[in-house]
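BUG-277 | component: ligand-complex export | severity: low

The export step for calcium ion jobs runs without errors, but we want the raw record kept on the ticket for reference. Input record follows.
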Amino acid sequence: MGLPSRYTPSLRIALLGIALAACFRAAPQSADGPAAFRDTLADGSPGPEMVRVPPGRFLMGDLRGDGDFDERPSHPVKIERAFAIGRYEVTFAEYDRYGAAAGAPVPDDGGFGRGDRPVVNVTWQDAMAYAIWLSDQTGQRYRLPSEAEWEYAARAGAATRFWWGDDPGSARANCAGCGSEWDSESTAPVGRLGANRFGLFDVAGNVWEWTADCYNNSYVGVPDDGCPHIYRSCGQLVVRGGSWILPPREMRAANRFRWIPVSRSDEVGFRLARDLP
Ligand SMILES: [Ca+2]
Ligand SMILES: [Ca+2]
């Protein structure tokens, strides 16, 4: 059985181009803006809650010497422009609204339920298509975060293994052994565990989150300006943050994993970013 045409390699290249195009932004940017906001969709309903992340510098990668080989070398990254990122993982309620409006396929919920659970069983193309639809609905540029933006937002200034410190602690995340009521059983409704200093929930655990970057097993030669690392022979994309069925080590802010863009999993969802004027 052939894959639907929307999964062709040429479309993937086009979508990677869209992801990269978000980086060519020369216009000056206003220094201030609301700390959090929701755009309005075409039917007047509110979009997902977005949080403003300020520009800044951070060290990306394994900062504790105990990470995986693909987290090295740790390297300085300068995020030159403020951007917005979802306070929560995209939920089934949000994605199903898109599916109903745009006629997109309905992802299986893995038996976990829909509503405020994070959407799962979505391909990278599904995530990109949702971002494009939301951009069309709001007149703003929604997109997947680059891997650097994701780690910058997830760390929220922390150089520790997790945004809250070096120890897994208890009930900080939904993972196998993190001490939440959903550990190893299912996804958790978004926003039930603590938020980091930028106000983001579930960057550690619950579901892996698609990024805009092609996976490469080293940080040698990657962009240092917050742009995604994209190349033509890209076969796998980066997911971040670990999931409900993996041990605490996988929840580390530096942790990376690779996923085939056409594959679906009940461990993988996403969080959107948005350009700020
Ligand atoms: Ca997550
Ligand atoms: Ca890893």
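Assignee comment: Attached the raw record above. The two ends are 44 Å apart (CA to CA).
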